[in-house]
Design goal:
Blueprint: E1 7-13, H1 18-25, H2 30-37, H3 42-63, E2 72-74, E3 80-82, E4 88-95, E5 98-105, E6 109-115, H4 122-129, H5 132-139, H6 146-164, E7 176-177, E8 187-189, E9 198-203, E10 209-216, E11 222-226, H7 230-239
Parallel strand pairs: 1-11
Antiparallel strand pairs: 1-5, 2-3, 4-5, 6-10, 7-8, 9-10
Helix pairs in contact: 1-3, 2-3, 3-7
Length: 245
């Protein structure tokens, strides 16, 4: 089990051989299969199956039991939790061909990952979603430094919103995070009820991606496991699939 105050991160590729895809789809619920089938493109269906299937194996890794028996509850804002497992919290994000998972005990957390990509509307998006201080910080940088700073800011903000679990009731321009490369990841300003309650960390899941973790309280040890492929991920999850002490 995860020691209190620690966070375990896992990254996994969203690509799979046909037999791996079948193994993951076999542990999904009927509702998850229906959700997967609503995607128009096969690559998006497969990515959903892989992301959710690996999530189930990882939950079983910590909570014990079978991946297909995991049941989820959802908050009014859609944040998932594990039915009947109150001590284990998790969060999931995926972008491009990579998924990122975070697990902790008895602490809320949020994680977000974004693949770097060209954005012709970067200025407009930043002005619409970022706080005034973030916009000023972003455009104080030279043009070459702005794309990476934009994605640092975006992932930090999304991870915070996911951690607090309030959905759209917390507007992205209602708080401020750091974004410059020479500054630590920090929640610079937030509504009074959130000040001093959250830790913010940058994560480097792979070249070409930005990611961030937000965690209630101070983070103890941060353990990061990079899964090279689906088969290896299933094996890692199953090798210590036993009930927590």
């Amino acid at each position: 089990m995860i020691p209190s105050g620690d966070v375990h991160l896992w990254s996994a590729p969203l690509t799979a051989a046909p037999e791996e895809l079948l193994a993951l789809s076999n542990v999904l619920s009927t509702e998850e299969i229906e959700r997967a089938n609503r995607f128009r493109f096969q690559e998006h269906r497969d990515a959903f199956v892989i992301a959710r299937g690996m999530l189930r194996f990882l939950i079983a890794h910590y909570a014990g039991g079978d991946p297909q028996d995991v049941q989820f509850n959802y908050s009014p804002y859609g944040k998932p939790s594990i039915a009947g497992e109150l001590s284990l919290s998790f969060n999931l994000s995926h972008s491009g061909v990579l998924a990122l998972y975070a697990f902790a005990r008895e602490r809320e957390l949020g994680v977000d990952i974004e693949q770097f990509r060209p954005m012709s509307d970067l200025e407009q998006v930043a002005k619409h979603f970022f706080s005034k201080g973030e916009v000023d910080d972003l455009f104080s940088l030279d043009e070459d430094g702005r794309p990476a700073a934009f994605f640092r800011c975006w992932t930090r903000k999304e991870a915070f919103v996911k951690a607090i679990g309030d959905g759209l009731s917390m507007p992205l321009d209602g708080f401020r995070v750091s974004l410059k490369a020479d500054e630590p990841a920090t929640l610079l300003d937030a509504p009074p009820e959130h000040r001093g309650k959250w830790s913010l960390r940058d994560v480097t899941p792979s070249e070409g991606y930005a990611a961030a973790l937000v965690f209630a309280g101070q983070i103890g040890k941060l353990e990061f496991t990079r899964i090279p492929d689906v088969t290896s991920g299933i094996a890692l999850a199953l090798c210590s699939n036993s009930p927590p002490e």
